[in-house]
Amino acid sequence: MIPVLRAEAHWQQIDLLSDLHLGPETPRTLARLARHLAETPAQAVILLGDVFEVWVGDDARFAPCEHSVVQMLRAASSRLGLYFMAGNRDFLVGADMLSDCGMPPPLADPTVLEAFDRRWLLSHGDAQCLGDAAYQQLRKQLRDPAWQQDFLAKPLAERRAFASQARDASRSAQAAMLAHADLDADICRAQLQDAGAHDLIHGHTHRPALHDLGDGLRRHVLSDWDFDTASRGDLLRISAAGLERIAL
Predict the structure, then answer these.
(1) What's the domain count of the chain?
(2) Tens-place pLDDT, residues 32-75
(3) Residue 5 included in any domain
């Protein structure tokens, strides 16, 4: 059964965003997120994965960039309902990090959001890219608790070096993936039917769009954020009026 997040009674607007890829190289994107969290009229914000470019364990949260993110999220969580779902870059975000940010445990992927008398299916999106068999095999390995326990037992410097090497090696492959891979329509329809929802909201592919899946089912894709080398980013806002895409 798919877990459910029920909107609080006072929520009138809910923001959903993903794929910020924050790190030391993205100060303007970090500042844009801080500004949005401080100014949004929404009462809740849901981060649908890849908030960080890479996350090698919660002991990394004391580094300057990561610590600034903790402070920003803690400030936002004092006045907003703030939720996190892991992506393919930050699946190692754990209880210590979320607790320091004043946030609840991570949302399962997928999760049903019940809000405004409707059900919305939320996901990061990578698990539905069934056409990329190599990635799905890698994802299975990286999500294995035994692999994660072994990796997190290594020194922080070693984990950072491993992540840096893996990122450099995968950049060309990732570009090819983003250019060609997409979510499998059949699994999206099946998950929506299982959830009793008509709308799937996700990120991951960096290709914002609205896809008609037939039979009244729809797939809404979030943009990635980049305010350092470009001026790109959007969010989806849910209210009693429905779903609205907002370009930042």
Answers:
(1) 1
(2) 999 999 999 999 999 999 999 999 999 999 999 999 999 999 99
(3) no
